[in-house]
Amino acid sequence: MVVRALIVLSVTMIFAQDPTAAASTEHGKVAYMQHGCWQCHGTVGQGSIATSGGKPLAPDPLPWETFSSFVRSTNRAMPPYSDKILTEGDLEDIYAYLQSIPKPADAKTIPLLNP
């Protein structure tokens, strides 16, 4: 009984600390495309520095607080996205999508690149 209570408490604390824990990666991908993030940051967050200056967002996105704050209040080349344009839920889903993007394979593990 005590073990069960500790597990429930641990899970509750984990989810309470991460506002994106219940976010939808599928909806995040849709929101990422709908809000035009892909135009500067690429379809999988890889960045498009050659064409538009969009920084890479994945596979290791900024910490949630930094990411959220930047999206809401940036004054650089990227326009700020208020919650009227991009809801908090959509932003959490986009962040979950970016977190779900796997790291690319190491070039040393690709036989074609290592004759």
Core attributes:
5 helices, 0% strand
Give helix % range: 40-55%
Residue stretches low in confidence (pLDDT < 50, at least 5 long) are 8-17
Number of helices: 5
Radius of gyration, rounded?
Answer: 17 Å
Major sheet characteristics: none
Mean pLDDT: 84
Q: Give me the CATH fold name.
A: Cytochrome Bc1 Complex, Chain D, domain 2
Order of helices and strands: HHHHH
Oligomeric state of the chains present here:
single chain
Structural class: mainly alpha
Head-to-tail CA distance between termini: 58 Å
Known CATH architecture: Orthogonal Bundle
Q: How many extended strands?
A: 0
From the spread of the alpha carbons, the general shape counts as globular
Number of domains: 1
How does this model look, in words?
With 115 residues, this protein is an all-alpha fold. The chain has one domain (2-102): Orthogonal Bundle (Cytochrome Bc1 Complex, Chain D, domain 2). 47% of the residues lie in helices and 0% in strands. The chain has 5 helices and no strands. The N and C termini lie far apart (58 Å). Residues 8-17 have low confidence and may be disordered.
List the helices and strands and how they pair.
Layout: H1 2-17, H2 25-34, H3 37-41, H4 64-73, H5 88-100
Helix pairs in contact: 2-5
Task: Describe what is shown at a glance.
This protein is mainly α. The chain has helices at residues 2-17, 25-34, 37-41, 64-73, 88-100. The longest helix is centred in the N-terminal third of the chain and has 16 residues, at 2-17.
